[in-house]
Amino acid sequence: MSTQERLVRSTQELLWERGYVGTSPKAILERAGVGQGSMYHHFAGKSDLALAAIRRTAETMKESADACLSGPGTAYERVAAYLLRERRVLRGCPIGRMTQDRDVVQSPELRQPLDEMFGWLRGRIAEVLAEGQRRGELAAALDPAATAATVAAVVQGGYVLARAADDTAPFDAAVRGALALLASQVTPAAG
Amino acid sequence: MSTQERLVRSTQELLWERGYVGTSPKAILERAGVGQGSMYHHFAGKSDLALAAIRRTAETMKESADACLSGPGTAYERVAAYLLRERRVLRGCPIGRMTQDRDVVQSPELRQPLDEMFGWLRGRIAEVLAEGQRRGELAAALDPAATAATVAAVVQGGYVLARAADDTAPFDAAVRGALALLASQVTPAAG
């Protein structure tokens, strides 16, 4: 693995574990096992390296969410696949976590990939729901954009509740509750 | 205001703004305008002071949530009052925020008030929903505990989405979507 790659991966891990403010350049160098000179050869500094790491993490999340949302099945089944996909719930979301870091959200550059990722996610879920409506699977009265925001929020908020409890049960309950509500919007013919 | 009170309030503000790892004892002393000796007279250290601050914040949140949930109206209206209550959305939740701090969730003592607050919140929303079912206002098939976790997660996740976008719109959309789904569970007689 190249030095640059080791730096990006170490930063991804540290940001997830400790957040931006809790991640020192020294910790990144130690975890990557590279010297300070190498870091400044590839990156202008912590912020530049964090940007590369956040972009990479967001890209990976987008791919794994899209694998569920673009899979086979009805709109309900695809949203269910996204909500129920394997997650390391107690670690939380590496992108959602960044929104709690003041230095990240106050930097337009560092906030951009978070905004882009969640904007894409809400848009993609809304598309799936709208498709389900066009196919007559879901009630026409459902607001795809609002419901998509609800689905994305349930996952992010589920992490918060699970971490507070040090237990995945509240995450699972929140997902189960959301799916039951969404199931009530499945038309009798499609259900 | 007593020195002790100034220390607690300053710590509440700093934890909300910067998180636990981002809050130094020095910053607390500066904001409270007290000397180091005074702090150690009242508190054993940062962790002890943070515990007092987190407990206080959790207590306040509980009171304001309960004011909505124990208010007048149907179960739907009370949950709606909770979801729609005035919030400084872009500041996020001072308690939810703490779940992203590794030092907080890894300390059983500091995590306890977060667990207690969200556990109480889910329980109280579930009670309101179960009451609505007993009164015939809500569909009997609704799972009160799971739906309560969904409602609590929508608020916490709504903050995450709003902070990523630097815009309250995704929070409002998530709440609107959740309320529309819940409204579909209101029985025709009650609705």
Automatic annotation (TrEMBL), chains A, B:
One of its GO terms (molecular function) is DNA binding. InterPro entries: Homeodomain-like_sf, HTH_TetR, Tet_transcr_reg_TetR-rel_C_sf, TetR_C. Residues 24-43 bind DNA. Residues 1-61 form the HTH tetR-type domain. Pfam families: TetR_C_13, TetR_N. PANTHER family: HTH-TYPE TRANSCRIPTIONAL REGULATOR LMRA, TRANSCRIPTIONAL REGULATORY PROTEIN. This is TetR/AcrR family transcriptional regulator. It comes from Streptomyces piniterrae.
